[in-house]
Amino acid sequence: MEEKELSSKNPAAIQSSVGNLPSDQPWSQKILELTALYEISKVLASSLDLKTTTHQLMEILSQVLGMRRGTLTLLNQERGELAIEVAHGLTPEEIARGRYKIGEGITGKVMETGEPIIVPDVGKEPLFLNRTHARGDITKQNISFICVPVKVKGETIGVLSVDRLFPDKNISFDEDVRVLTVVASMIGQAVMLSRMVAQEKQKLIDENIYLKQELKTKYRLANIVGNSEKMGEIFEIVEKVAPTKATVLLRGESGTGKELIARAIHYNSPRASKPFVKVNCAALPETLLESELFGHEKGSFTGAIETKKGRFEIANGGTLFLDEIGDLSLSTQIKLLRVLQEKQFERIGGIKTYTVDLRIIAATHKDLEKAIREGSFREDLYYRLNVVPIFIPPLRERKEDVPLLVEHFLKLFNRENGKNVRFSSDVTEILQDYSWPGNIRELENFIERVVVMAKKEVVSSTDLPGLLPSLSLSPQDPEKLRGDGFSLPDTIEALEKKHIQEVMRECGGIQSRAAKLLGITPRQLGYRIRKYQLSPKGD
Question: Which is nearest to 163 in space by CA: 115, 112, 191, 128?
């Protein structure tokens, strides 16, 4: 016989492929059974959609093996009853009527005992309820009914049943039971896998809901540390702008907490359940930045081995936070302006136009007005972004918040490191008077360093020089370090200037190494070099 490719999507082709075999030969039926089981296994392996695969399975049983009205009935644990999950040849109304209690009718008995039941003639069997009414007058038809349990790890979870119409005299019910038992076992494994996937999916959904709720709680305004008058003004603006769709421009020095405010706006808005996506415009070169923002099509440039969604698509429905917006190139600014105006864009190398609904929050530490005058920032983009400006003050301008922040970070890092480090009262005063050029980020790093490195629970002022290099005192000649004035801030700035000079000299002017030794970022070091007008080599 010429080989043919069999397809479970066309069971009739399976029947016709062996239709020329003599029907009175036992091996003819064996071939049909093996072929049916093979096709059923392929169907069950093709998808996790239980209803779709089981419906195809029932069609194979009907077309190939002549088993009519194949029905899968599963136990509902909560209700304690059996209900038809999938049926071949039954209408939705007939399926809806197919409900049984455990022990009720043939289906309920198989569920109760976990053993197959064969009814040679349903018209003569009082236990056969014919609840679906799909067979008409069963007393006038010669219909046999075969029902086998569906088990998983020895536990019966449902029932598989079929009708036999005038079975061939050479086909015994035992053979049908054997085939259906194999099929029921395969269905049991598919049901178990489907339920496991459903449970994992629900678990992920629950975790996602929980994490989103945690984020919303974390970024409530009440949880942002600060009770100064300036922070109070910021909280008031955030409360007003969060429920709206307005674009927000956050201004302020690095480390002042602009991203924290951006997240607070998002998680206190109607978009809180949607994505909050951040892009650091200063961290990527222009070509990569455009790909990150707008995405690209496969093959659009060297290295584009697959299609990639941009951050605008990912953030659709939510908020896109563009950090360091002042570092965008002019060409990228033009493309960004179009998205802000029309909410539309194309991927790199693509022609399809995508429309998005999202909120833009931008942030920068740069003087955008100066950048406009110098021609490095577009004035029209500035006005598009500057709908609701929020200025985040540096820490030195809200020193009353320093003790609160110190207490907050001490609790956080003590909990993370299993310690109980605290400061003496004089330390808090010194920290409050320090200028904190790195702002909250510098303070946070300092507190973490204290908790990790402290050898005792109470840290005093004498321990500070080793923990905060900017406060290091020279025991030989402290008077020379005071600068022109005698106030603590003057002294601290003089100490900081001298210490940076020494470290830069030791590192041969390599700023990245010096920043690492000083415990600050290269950007913060660059800021101090400009502030104190130091030589890049520490001369």
Answer: 128
148: part of which helix (H) or strand (E)?
strand 143-152
User: Are the C-beta atoms of 212 and 272 separated by less than 8 Å?
Assistant: yes
Q: What percent of the chain has pLDDT over 70?
A: 84
Which residues of the chain are in CATH 1.10.8.60 domains?
Answer: 396-532
Q: What is the pLDDT of residues 93-125, one digit of tens each?
A: 888 888 888 988 888 899 999 999 988 888 788
User: Beta strand pairing status for 143-152 and 276-280?
Assistant: unpaired
3-class DSSP string for 466-499: HHCHHHCCCCCCHHHHCCCCCCHHHHHHHHHHHH
Strands 359-364 and 248-251: parallel
Single out the residue of 88, 93, 125, 89 nearest to residue 109, CA to CA.
125
Q: What is the CATH number of domain 219-393?
A: 3.40.50.300
Amino acid of residue 104: E
What kind of architecture, by CATH, is found in domain 396-532? Answer: Orthogonal Bundle (1.10)
Full-model pTM: 0.55
Chain-centroid distance, C-alpha 31: 49
CA dist., res. 458 & res. 324, Å (int): 39
pLDDT greater at residue 481 or residue 457: 457
Decide if 481 contacts 469 (C-beta within 8 A).
no
The residue among 77 and 344 whose pLDDT is bigger is 344
